[in-house]
Fold:
Amino acid sequence: MKISVVILTTGKKEAIDRCLKSIDFCQEKLVISGKVTDFANARNSAMKKAKYDWILFIDEDEEVSENLKQEILNSRFDHDAYYIKRRDFFWGREMKYGETRKIRNKGIIRLVKKNSGKWIGKVHEVFELQSSQLTVGRFNHYLNHYPHQTIKEFIEKINFYSSLRAQELYRQRKKFSLFQAVFYPFFKFILNYFIYLGFLDGPAGFVYAFLMSFHSFLVRAKLYQYTKL
Structure:
């Protein structure tokens, strides 16, 4: 089965080289380069341009593991889309708990049949099937993810993504809530660090849980700022 692949990249050479090497089994590569501000629109536009019926979506800081590659190549493609599990590597260790736990265990839809659905959401976008009659399969092996390996990069991404999310909420006429701004980030930290066992990931688990909670606070603080402009 021939596969097109859509790659989101900001042009970081080390990351994109690793990513490209892992998708050498795909017959067409469509690269979206630069600072994307509407991720769903970017993915949907690329999907329309794809030559082949099956499309794999990947970011520059991800790579297809060798086991996943073989699983895809051996697939019968008898569903309309596929969940792919993703494991995060942060500060030199694999993250198994906390914020990344759900995607690691359940996965995200990343391999889709053309015209089976569309991406929705300007940020934290998800793939939505166009019909309940369509089916979603699941692969057993992983995408490897190497996000924001330094605190500086992590904070820069949090600042960028929180602005996009706050703008999206503002356009949806969502109201600022002081209660949410104060308590949601706190409970998110408790959820990820304690209930989802993020503390088992060591210092990296604490930093990840803390900064993602900070992200939640920034979204709500920026939403308040937009409503007052």
